[in-house]
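Hi P.,

Sorry for the delay on this. The queue was packed all week, but I finally got your sequence through. Input first:
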Amino acid sequence: MQEKDYIQFITEIKGSILKSRYKAASLANKEMLLLYYHTGYKLSRKIEEANWDTGVIQKISGDLQKELPGLRGFSYSNLKNMRQFFEEYPYLFQTLQLTGNEKDKIGQSSTGQLELLEINELKK
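Then the structure:
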C-alpha cells in the first residue's frame, strides 16, 4: 500500500462523510422549518375558521405534551410563534419547497401535496 494513495483515499472518504452529514442536517432543518410553518398555518386557519380565542393555543400545547411525553418545541410560546411565523410570511411555503437542488429533491407525500393545495387555496 502506498502512503500517498492511502492518504488520498482517507481524504475522499472523509469528504464524503462530511458532505453527507451536512446534507442530512440541512434536510432535517428544512423539514423542521416546514413543520413549524405548517403548524402555524394549521393553527391560524383553525382559530379563524372555528372562531376560537387565542387561549386555545395553551390548551393545544398542554394536550400535545400529554399525547407525546417528552415532546420539545411545542410550548405555548413556540406555538404562538409558529402561528405568527405563518401570518407574517403567508407565501413562504412555495419558497421553502423550491430551495435546494431540484435533482436531489425527494418527492412529496400525498398528504404533503394535499396540504400544499390547502395553502394555495388560502392565498386565493
